[in-house]
Amino acid sequence: MKVGVLALQGDVSEHIDAFTAALRKRGYTEDSPVIEVRNPEDLAGCAALAIPGGESTTISRLVDKNGLYKPIRDFKGGIFATCAGMILMATDVGDPRVHSLGLLDMTVDRNAFGRQRESFEADIRVQGLDGGSFHAVFIRGPVVTEARDGVVVLARTDKGIVAVEKGRHMALAFHPELGGDLRLHERFLKNLGV
Fold this sequence. Notes:
12 strands, Rossmann fold, single chain, 23% helix, alpha/beta, globular, seven-stranded mixed β-sheet, 194 residues
């Protein structure tokens, strides 16, 4: 089991650490590396890809520049997308500067929670997640304003939808890799059969 982390911008090392820990908790060892993905060749052999937070217009440009747009769209593994990654996964982002992947049929509102200084943490309830509420870190996060075509809503706040999944993909408006709670990483891996 190899997990790739899109390493163009954002909290790459935090995702690597979280997925490494989640794989170990699920019984995988060094034979299951978590690697940085910077070009299409890096995706070879990956069963999953994390698209971290960062700045969605910048990540979008870098995905195009590095020739990753089509390989990610065609990727057969699961995608775990956080914050800006959630924006890239949507079909409708409302910003022509973002070349979204369109892998989840949903509309997002970029930076719905405001500016950087308005970032916050909150305990949210995630549908089907055992162990009580999930402590979520929101940093200029998006919200999903409309989920369509089988996109399952997992969590909401008063601003809107903040967690969704469909099939092998999960998209979150917050940063689970920053809080130390691996339950969403583990759920994602379990959904992939790991």
